[in-house]
Amino acid sequence: MAGRVETTEPVGKSVPRIDAYEKVTGAVQYVDDIPFGPNLLYGKFVRSPYAHALIKSINTSKALALPGVKAVVTGKEVPNRIGLYLKDRFVFPLDRVRWIGEPVAGVIAINEEIAEEAAKLVEVEYEELPAVFDPREAIKPDAPLIHPDLGKYEVVPFIFPEPGTNISEHFKLRKGDVDSAWSQCAAIVEDDFFVPQIQHVPIEPHCAVARWDKDGTVTLWAASQSPFAQRDLIAQSLDIPHGNLRVIAPYVGGGFGGKAGVSIEANVVAMSRAVPGYPVKVRMTREEEFLGTNVRQSCAAHYKIGCDKDGNLLAYECQYYFGGGAYNEYGVNITRAAGYSCTGPYDVPNVKGDSYCVYTNTQVGSAMRGFGMPEIHWGLEQMMDRLAEKIGMDKAEFRRRNCVRPGDKILTGMTMPQVDLVKCIDLVTKAINWDKKDKPSAPHKKRGKGIAIMWKAPAMPPNPGSQAIVRFNEDASVNVFVGGQEIGQGTFTVMAQMAAETLGVPYEWVRITANPVDTKYSPYEWQTVASRLTWSMGNAVKAAAEDARQKILQVVAEYWKEDPKDLDIKNGVVVSYKSEREQSLKKMVVYGLPNENYEGWQGGPIVGSGKFMPTYVTGLDPETGQGTRAVVHYTVGAQAVDIEVDTETGQIEVLKIASAYDVGKAINPDLVMTQIEGGAVHGLSAAYEGFYFDERGKLINNSLVDYKIATVMDIPKEIHGDIVETPLEDGPWGARGVGEHVMVQTAPAIANAISDAVGVRINTLPLSAEKVYLAMMKK
Amino acid sequence: MLHEITLTVNGEQRTVAVKSHHTLLKVLREQLGITSPKIGCENGECGACTVLMNGKAVNSCLVLAVEADGAVIETVENLSKEGELHPLQQAFVEHNAIQCGFCTPGMIMSAKGLLDRNPHPTVDEVKEALAGNLCRCTGYIRIVDAVMDVAKKGDA
Amino acid sequence: MQPFDYYKPKTFEEAFDYLTLPGKTVFPLAGATDFIPSYRDGVWQADAVCDIKALPGVRDLRETPEGLWVGACVLMSELARSPLVRAHWEVLAQGAEVVGSEQVRNRATIGGNMCTASPCADTPPPLYVLDAVVVLKSKAGERRVPVTEFFTFVRKTVVQKGELVTGVIIPKPPAGTVGEYHKLSRRQGCDLSLVSVAVLAAPRNGGYDWRIALGAVAPTPIRVPDAEAILSKGWDAASIDEAAKAAEKTAKPITDVRSSDVYRYEMVRNLTRRAVRSVAEKLKK
Ligand SMILES: Cc1cc2nc3c(=O)[nH]c(=O)nc-3n(C[C@H](O)[C@H](O)[C@H](O)COP(=O)(O)OP(=O)(O)OC[C@H]3O[C@@H](n4cnc5c(N)ncnc54)[C@H](O)[C@@H]3O)c2cc1C
Ligand code: FES
Ligand code: FES
Question: What is the ipTM of this complex?
C-alpha cells in the first residue's frame, strides 16, 4: 500500500472503480471464460416450433444413437414446477408448449457441434392449439386458455390470479371517487398506448454450467444477478437441500434484469443430473438469447385523465394489460408494481387503476431495468403533455404543480418519503434552455423539446434481506464479503467506499470479496435487482463495518483503560480524543494487543457482521390497493430532450438529453453520472427497439442484424446530468438507488419533443424514422 | 479437416492443430487460453470478439482459425507491460469508461487499431472506428472521451 | 457451427478443381463476412470452402489502360482509404466506407459483396453508375459481364458453379465527374441499407451525363434511365424533383422487417432528390 494514493473518508468522492484494472487488462473471468478441462460436456436445447401445442410424445432414440451424445433430458425426468412469485412453469414442459422457442428437451454431448446436431434429431410430436399473442386479445372470454391449471399453482399472498382466464395477476387501485370527479374537470384526455416486447441485450449472452456430483452436491456456475434466489428456487424445484446446491456467479457481462430470477439455469442443473460428475455447459447463441430467454413484457394501456382549469389533476383512470408471455412467475410482480405506482409521480385525489398480467404465447416477460415503469410512463407522460396543452399551460409548469411531494398521501395511502422532484424539473429545464426556441440546423429539419418525469420504487417482496461480513487482514487491509453482484453498475466500488468510511480506513485498503459470489461462502443477498443494493446491501455493509469498528475500539479502550466513546479510527489509526494516544490498526486487528509486561493478550482477529431487511412494508387491500406502506421508498427524476426531426426521412437526432435524479446521497458522484449517461442512451435505444413476430408468433428479428441497439454513432451530441441529494430516511448516508430510473422516461420525453417539433403524436412504440415520417405525411 | 497452423499471438509463436470450421475466436479461447475476446453474437455484429490481425481490427468470430495461419494476432492481454497499463487502458480507467467490462477488450482493440493507423483522429473518426463495438452499459461517451484523450496526448 | 473442409489453392487451376469436386458443394471463400453468418444460420450449406485470397491478382488495386482494376479480394477498407480510388472513383469509396463496421470492412471484399448479391449491398449501386465490368474466370476461360447484367435476382448472379469473379474493371470517368452515394438505414452505425442511391454526373459535350442507381428497392440494383434522361437535359430544381419522382416510379421495393414498401417509395424519392442536389452543389463549385 506504500506509495499509492490513499483516499480517506471516501463517501461522496469519485474514487476510481475497484474493478477497473482487471476489466481493462482482460483478466476478468466471466462464466464462459472459466476453464473446466476436457471433461466438459455441452448442452443444447430442443425448442418448440409451435406457439401453443400439446406435446404428444418425445422420441429421443435417434439423438441418443448419435456418437458423442451422452443424454437427453425431457420434462418427464424433471416433473417439477418452479417460479418466483407464482409457480407456473415446469423446468421442461410436461405436456404443453407455450411459445415458439420454448425448450422442450436438453441434449448433452461431448462438443457443441454434436449437441447441435443431436438436438435436431429429437423427434417431438405436437398437437397444435390456437394461440394468442396480444394481451388485449388474451383477456377475451373466448381466447385460448394458456394455463388451464392456473388455480392449482402455488402463489405468494400478494398476487391474485384469476383461474379460468389468462389473467395471472389483477391489481386494483381505488382512491377517492373518479366517476364523480370527471364532471369537475375542465379538460379530459383519453387514449390508448402500446409498448412491444423488447430485450435487455446484454453483450454477454446467458451462460450456465452445472455439475451434479455423485454425493448429491450440485454446483451451478451462472451469469447471474440472483445466485441466492436461484439457489432457493432451484433447490425447491429439484428437491436439493439448500446446503447441497452451490451457485457460483462471477462478474456479469451486463444484466439489466435479464439475468435476474431463473431462466436457463434450472434446465442446466436438471440436465447435469443425467451425467453425474461431468460439468455441462449451455451457452445461448445470440439468436437463442432473443428467442429463448426473458424479455420485457409488452403493455397495452388505456388512460383517461382530467384536471381543473388551473391545471390541478383531479381524476386518473387507467387499465394496464401486460403481455406477460408464456410464464408469468416473475412478471406478475411487474404488473403489481405498475398498479401501485399507476399514476406515475403525480398526486391525484381520485384514482381508479387496474393492472393486469396476461398470459400470451410469446417469450417469457420478466424483470427489466425499470420494472413496469417505462411501460406505463410511455403513455402517461404523453398524456400529461396533452392535458397541459389542452388547458394552455406550460408542460414543465404543469408537472411542477402536480408532481408528488414529501408528506403527500399518495395513491396507495402511503405517505410520500423525502424526495425533491420539483428541483429535478428545474434542473433539466434549465440545462436544456426550456423557454428558448432554438433554430434547426437546416431548412428541412424541425427542432423540438420535450420533458418527462418519473418515479419508481424498488419492487420486491416486503422483506428482501442483505448480509455482509467485514474481516481484517494483518496489514489492516479489509475484505468485505457481500453477496450482491457486480453487473457493471459499480456496486463493489460503492460498498468499498461505505466500508472504508465507516471503519475509518482509506478506500484503497478495502477489497470486495464477491467475485465470484458463491452461495457456499458469500453472505446472503436476495437478488441484484430493483436498484436496491446501494441502499440495502449498503446498510448491511455499514452495519458490518460498524460492528467491526466497535470491536476494535473496545479492544483498544480496554488496552488504554479509556472509554470507547472517546476513541475514533482515523485513516487506519485508533485515536483518543481524550488522551491523544494513537494505535495503528496494523497487526492488532489480527493479533490483538498485549497486556502490560505481556501478561496475556486482548482482542484477536477482527470480524464484523451486519444485516439489513426492511421491516415496515405492509400488505395492501386486494380491492383498493390501500395500505399504510406499499413500498420502501421512491426514487424520482426528470429528463428533458432537445431534438431535431429530418422532415424528409423522419429520422430523429437527439441533440441533448438532460437528466436529474434525486439519489439521496451520491456515494460516488462520477458513478452516478455513468448511470445517468448509460441510462439515457439505453432509454434512447430502447425507444427504437421492438420484437416483430410473424402471424404464427415466430420472432422475426431474432438477431442483432435486425434487432438494433444504439451504437456510438447513435448517441446524443450531449448528455447532461444533475444529481439531487435529498437524504432518504433509512439510506446509508441518505442514499437511494438510481440504476434503473435513468432510462424510464426517455422514450416519452423524445415523443413529447417530436410532438413539439412536428406536431405528431406516436402512441405505439417503437419509434422509427418510418413511423414519424408516415405520421407527418398523414397530418 | 485438421490443419496445423502457426501464428504469432501476443508476441509468442504458437503452433496448433485446428479444425477447418473453427473460428479464430474459438481457437483463441478454447485452444490457446486467451479469453479476452468475448462471444457476443458470432455474427460480426457486436465487436466483443475484436482482435488485431496483422495490425487491423477484425471480428475474430468471422475469421476461420486456419485463415490466420502465419498471422500476427494481438489481444488486450498484450497491452499492459510490466504492470504498466497501456495509455488506452489507463484512459479507460480514468474516464470510468467501463461498466460490466464485457465489451471493453474489443473496444480497446478497435481503438488501438485506429490509433495505430491514425494517431490523431477526430471525434467522428473515433466513432466510425468504434461503430462495430456494441456497449449496452456506458452510453459510449466516456469511451470516446478516453480514446480522444489518448489521441490528443499522442502517446499511443 | 457444423463441420466443413477448407482448401486454399495458389493457382486458378487448383481452385477450379476444388470448386468442382464431384458430389460436393464447395463455396469460394473471400472475407467470410457473409459466409460465416449465412452458414451458421443454415441459409447456406457447404461441404467445403475454397479460400481464394491466395490466387494471383485478386488482391490488386491499380490503374490500367482500361481503367481501375479492383481484384475480387480487395477489401472495403482498402477501397475506402485508397487515394487513387478517392481521386477518380469517389462514389465507390463512399459505398465501401459505409459497409458494416471497421472490423467488417477489414475483411469484407468487393467480390464477396457482389457474389452474395444482397439487394441492399452497398458497392453495387456505385459500380452501376460507374459502368463497371465484371471479370469472371473458370476452366472454360475468362468472360466479361457488364455489372448491370451481373445480378439476376435476390442472391442470384450469372456466376456458374466452378466459376470465380476475379475482379472488376471500372472505366476512368472524365475529369470533372462528380458522384455521391447516399444510404438510409435504421441506425447510424453499422446497419444495412433500407434504400440507397448512387448518383454520378460526368461531363459530356459541354453538359453532363447523369447516372442514377438505386439499391435495396428491387431484387437487384437498378438504374433509373428516366431520371437520368431528365437530368441530362437540365438540373434545375424542378427537373431534380421530376427525376426524384421518376426514381420512385422505377423502384419496386418490398415490405419486410426493416421497413414498409410505402416508406421505401417515399425514401427513394427523397433520397434521390437529396443525392442529386448534393451532386449539383458540387458541380456548381
Ligand atoms: C456485421 C455485418 C455488417 C454488414 N454490413 C453490410 C453493409 O452495410 N453493406 C453491405 O453491402 N454489406 C454488409 N455486410 C455484408 C458483407 O460484409 C459484404 O457483403 C461483404 O462484402 C462480403 O464479402 P466477403 O469477402 O466477406 O464474402 P464471403 O463471405 O467470403 O463470400 C460471400 C459469398 O460470395 C461468394 N464469393 C466470394 N468471393 C467470390 C468470388 N471472387 N467469386 C465467386 N464467388 C465469390 C462466396 O462463395 C459466398 O457465397 C455486413 C456483414 C456483416 C457481418
Ligand atoms: S462475437 Fe464477433 S462480432 Fe459479436
Ligand atoms: S461496459 Fe458493459 S457492454 Fe460495455
Answer: 0.98
Determine if ligand 1 sits within 6 Å of the CB of residue C15.
Answer: no
Q: Between β-strands B50-53 and B12-19, what pairing exists: parallel, antiparallel or unpaired?
A: unpaired
What's the whole-number mean pLDDT along residues C266-274? 98
Does residue A532 surpass a pLDDT of 50?
yes
The tens digit of pLDDT for each residue in C49-90 reads 999 999 999 999 999 999 999 999 999 999 999 999 999 999
CB contact C188 to A (< 8 Å): yes
Distance CA A100, CA A87 (A): 21
β-bridge pairing A607-612 and A123-128: unpaired
Q: Each residue of A311-350: pLDDT tens digit?
A: 999 999 999 999 999 999 999 999 999 999 999 999 999 9
Judged by CB atoms within 8 Å, which residues 4-63 of B form the interface with A? 29, 33, 35-36, 38-43, 45-46, 48
Nearest residue to B32 (alpha-carbon basis) of B2, B5, B1, B59? B5
Q: How far apart are CA B90 and CA C247, in angstroms?
A: 52
Domain A20-29+464-612 and domain A37-129+206-283, same fold? Reply is no
A219 forms beta bridges with A211, A246
Judged by a CB distance cut-off of 8 A, whether residue B107 touches chain A is: no
Model confidence over B49-62: pLDDT tens digits?
Answer: 999 999 999 999 99
Closest-lying ligand 1 atom to the alpha carbon of residue C58: 41
Determine contact, residues A627/A157, Cβ cutoff 8 Å: no
Rounded-to-5 percentages of helix, strand, coil across chain A: 30, 25, 45
Q: A571: buried, middle or exposed (CB in 10 Å: 19+, 13-18, 0-12)?
A: middle
Residue extents of the structural domains in chain C: 5-51, 61-170, 178-284
CB neighbour class for A537 (10 Å; exposed up to 12, middle 13-18, buried from 19): buried
Residues lining ligand 3, CB < 6 A?
Answer: A 203, 254, 488; B 98-103, 135-138
| Class of domain C5-51 (CATH, top level) | alpha beta
Atom nearest to A254 CA in ligand 3:
2
Whether C285 shows a pLDDT value over 90: the answer reads no
| DSSP secondary structure string for all residues of C16-35 | HHHHT-TT--EEEESS-TTH
Q: What value does the mean pLDDT take over residues A475-492?
A: 98
User: Is A740 assigned a catalytic role?
Assistant: yes
What fold is seen in the domain A37-129+206-283?
Answer: Aldehyde Oxidoreductase; domain 3 (3.90.1170)
Q: How far is CA A56 from CA A63, A147, A361, A691, in A?
A: 18, 17, 19, 30
Query: CB under 8 Å to A637, separation ≥6 — which residues?
Result: A421, A424, A453, A454, A659, A660, A661, A662, A738, A741, A742, A744, A745
pLDDT at A3 over 70: no
Number of Cβ within 10 Å of residue C11's Cβ equals 11
Q: Which residue has the cell 463497371?
A: C132
* Average pLDDT over all residues of chain A: 97
Instruction: Mark the ranges of chain B whose per-residue pLDDT is less than 50.
Output: 156
- Residue ranges and CATH numbers for the domains of chain B are 2-76 (3.10.20.30), 87-153 (1.10.150.120)
Q: Which residues in chain B have their CB less than 8 angstroms from residue A251's CB?
A: 100-101
Which of A253, A286, A674 lies closest to B142 in CB terms? A674
Q: Which residue has the cell 450449406?
A: C45
Residue with the smallest CA separation from ligand 1 atom 38 is C112
Topology (CATH level 3) of domain A20-29+464-612: Aldehyde Oxidoreductase; domain 4 (3.30.365)
> Rounded to whole angstroms, what are the CA distances from A236 to A83, A104, A239?
10, 21, 5
What's the CA-to-centroid distance between B25 and ligand 3, angstroms? 19
3-class DSSP state for residue B152? helix
Residue B113 one-letter amino acid: G
Which DSSP string do the residues of C45-110 spell out, in sequence order? --SEEEE-TTSTTTT-EEEETTEEEEETT-BHHHHHH-HHHHHH-HHHHHHHHTSS-HHHHTT-BH
pLDDT of residue B83: 83
